Amino acid sequence: MAPDSNDQAGHSPEDRGLRPAETPMTAADRLCDRIEAVDAEILAFLPEPGRRARLRAEARALAERDTAFDRLPLYGVPVAIKDIVRVAGLPTRAGSELPAELLDGPQAPLVDRLRAAGALVAGKTVTAEFAGTAPGPTRNPHHLGHTPGGSSSGSAAAVAAGMVPLAIGTQTVGSVIRPAAYCGVIGFKPGYDRVPTEGVIPNVPSLDTVGLFAADLELATRAAGVLCDRWQQPAPTTPRPRLAVPEGPYLGRAEPAALAAFEEHTARLAAAGHEILRVPFLDDLAQVEADQYTVNRFETARVHADWFARHGDRYRPQTAAAIRQGQAVDPDDYTRALRARERFRDRLRQVMADRGIDLWLTPAATGPAPRGLESTGSGAMCLPWSYAGVPALALPAGPAPDGLPLGVQCVAASGADERLLAWAPDLLAALTPPGGTPRPRLGAAHLPHPSGERG
User: Fold this and answer.
1) Is the residue at 302 inside a domain?
2) Is 451 a residue of the active site?
3) Model confidence over 196-207: pLDDT tens digits?
4) Where in the sequence does UniProt note compositional bias of the Low complexity kind (predicted)?
């Protein structure tokens, strides 16, 4: 069994995701207790008969595998997996009604990495159909009548409700950053090519990016180091970043109340000593959005060409409409849009270099989570950055007037994933309001949110 006290490297069990004197077995039981008590209201996880027995077996095998748990950066940490990622022993349905055998395949390498790092797979979480816009049943833990965002809805809600401290999502437009903001948790979308996407059901292959949700930044950073290729942790003396707000039509996509809150957020950062520039950018936002739409729809139709031809009647209306729109896109227009994306990436890189910008600072979503479960909300605040393939981070920034969470998005240059996370603790400390960030009130469950729990 793994030791329960500090090891020679000075890492305690709680540093690895466990409470003091807790083994992976007891952590697995605590996880299952929480899911059983809370998820009937939140509906973040897919049902799994025998979850407790499976998790206890995984925990037992982990404890027997390696007693030097300092070598396992996610030792005993329960992680939820979005249901477009293949996990050995668990079915993949991608939120769809297509025949299950169509979606079968080997376990995704990213899950191999998590398990090799000591993580316990808590289960599959609800996704919008094929990571698109047709929402699943998941509810926002802060208010059950509001969306948790999407398409990684179950992963964000599972972390927000204290069921798991870590969850995997994906982002094509705004499917990590937006639900992280709506649910009041950390959301990290690495650069486009940093995490392997083999074994992940594609949505838009040239845009799809694996990301994560976490209960705290330290865990997010550890998980990023496990998942990302070529991870190089920067020196602790990394200087403060130079921040920039993109002035122009982009901010006009946000709701007035969200913009007012964002001005308060930037004021907090400035008061903490951060330099903030106001830089005109994205004057051609409408064209960027149109080009992104062309790429998005064309590739969606191409991914689903065979399945849709055989099983089109099993797709939900939103997904079927997106596929049909993609079928109507001229291949020459798609090629032109890809070229336009390269020009946009070059322009973004040049503006950041010319002005000495380390991070763009924006609202993480157009406002707090909308009421109702028919939509997952707008990804407009994420679209340009996802289109460029650059890393982004959602940081909780306190409540909106209605009490729902708000988030701030920090966007770094391509290849600066490590520095983005290294800068984040200082930014989060400045953004956190005196009263802290909102905690979910879990409806009829009446269970306290496990504040401070990391395992």
Assistant:
1) no
2) no
3) 999 999 999 999
4) 432-445
